[in-house]
Write a structure and sequence with these properties.
The protein has 424 residues and is an alpha+beta fold. It contains 13 helices and 19 strands.
């Protein structure tokens, strides 16, 4: 029996559970929770896994949930979905749009929305888990459904591992994950090797000398220093790296002063660096330190700047063999709607989980934009303007066919490795 025949057998029940899955998604979208606060989401996930016959472990790493379904001898496959939302005010106009507010890690009240599509990831994995559990005659092996908290702050995978994940569940033979991206819904895209970048968050504090705004000669102006640093940092990618070595450096925040007529004592810059290999990463981080230090010295600063490296996301580098297997299965199941995904400058912490087990993984793209809207924007050359991207206040996957495609993709990947039943 081909992979497609086995997938068709398992997803034959999708029509019967589709209304419930769609309702679950809309409810989850309307009730987002920030990283490490996914209590409602985790409770609902655990209940549904338990009702399907999974052995459920909840509270892993705080709010993580893992379900294990043993179904005879065979390989073990891990499927992962992330659960957390973002501090973003939703502006999609959807009838189930989020109106939620919450408190971030610093205690500030912020709007909360699923502006990255993790609600779709959760719903798709629950759907796939339920279908595979209901069709146990179609496969043999062990399925691990892992729902991870706190992907956005970058420490959710580490939290689950620190809480004993590798001892809690069977060691998988392979791990799979997917992410909605702003491409036409109904499409899936795989990519062997580098797929997502590494990311480094950096805090820079520069120290000047404050003075009255009318007497700049008495000051060492940190605002001017910060401005020069921002401009000069842009030359790292454009002038210090070869065009064949992709990288992104963004200054996302500059904070200094409280009044227009007061030159402040200091300024703070928050930087984000994206790279795809360790050599480029080291070169960019070294250049950041060099430029910050040199600009402060050129301005006559009395104190050395502080350059603090914060949260780091690892690169996502898909295993070639595992990706070939999934890509072949996708081609069989999705036909012309399966293809190759583009290199992405976004980042993830998913790879820390299979890396901790020492197993291969592959992570693919799931299209989520209305196909007609995307095609109209493509023809008009307005994709960047008209198609909202992840983390935008206007981002939300079109419910269908994204949901059905995501469920089918997870089932397909799982069955590409799980053993067929005897005689099939």
């Amino acid at each position: 029996m081909s992979v497609k025949d086995r997938v068709d057998e398992v997803v034959a029940g999708l029509g019967g559970i589709r209304p419930e899955l769609e309702g679950f998604y809309e409810d989850l979208h309307a009730h987002p929770e920030l990283g490490h606060q996914e209590h409602r989401t985790a409770t609902r996930v655990a209940e549904r896994l338990g009702s399907c016959g999974f052995q459920v472990h909840d509270g892993v790493g705080g709010t993580g949930v893992v379900g294990v379904l043993a179904n005879g001898d065979g390989p073990t496959v891990l499927l992962r979905a992330d659960m957390d939302a973002l501090p973003v005010r939703e502006e999609t106009g959807l009838p189930y749009a989020s109106k939620a507010v919450g408190k971030d890690a610093s205690g500030r009240e912020v709007p909360v929305a699923h502006a990255c599509g993790h609600d779709m990831h959760v719903t798709c994995l629950l759907g796939a888990a339920r279908l595979l559990a209901a069709a146990r005659d179609a496969w043999r092996g062990t399925l691990v459904a892992l729902f991870q908290p706190a992907e956005e702050p970058g420490d959710g995978a580490d939290g689950m591992l620190a809480d004993g994940l590798t001892d809690l569940v069977p060691r998988p033979d392979v791990a799979f994950a997917q992410h909605v991206l702003p491409y036409p819904a109904g499409r899936v895209g795989t990519r062997a090797g580098s797929f997502l970048s590494a990311a480094d968050n950096i805090r820079v504090t520069i120290h000047g000398r404050g003075a009255h705004g009318s007497a700049p000669q008495a000051a060492i102006d940190p605002v001017v220093m910060a401005s020069m640093i921002v401009v000069r940092l842009q030359t790292i990618v454009s002038r210090e790296l070869a065009a064949t070595r992709p990288a992104v450096l963004t200054v996302g925040s500059v904070q200094a002063g409280t009044s227009g007529n007061v030159i402040p004592e200091s300024a703070e810059l928050l930087l984000n660096v994206r790279t795809y290999d360790e050599e480029t990463r080291r070169a960019v981080l070294a250049a950041v330190r060099r430029i910050v230090t040199a600009e402060c010295a050129a301005s006559g600063a009395d104190r050395e700047p502080e350059v603090e490296e914060g949260t780091r996301f690892p690169p996502t580098v898909n295993d070639a063999a595992a990706t070939r297997e999934v890509a072949a299965a996708f081609a069989e199941v999705f036909g012309e709607h399966a293809g190759t995904a583009e290199l992405q400058s976004a980042s993830e912490d998913f790879s820390r989980i299979p890396d901790a087990f020492g197993v291969p993984y592959t992570y693919w793209a799931l299209g989520c934009v209305d196909p007609d809207a995307y095609e109209a924007a493509r023809r008009g050359g307005t994709v960047a303007r008209d198609i909202p991207v992840n983390h935008s206040s206007r981002f939300a996957p079109v419910l269908q066919p994204t949901l059905d495609t995501g469920v089918r993709a997870l089932v397909t990947a799982a069955l590409s490795r799980l053993a067929a039943r005897d005689g099939a």
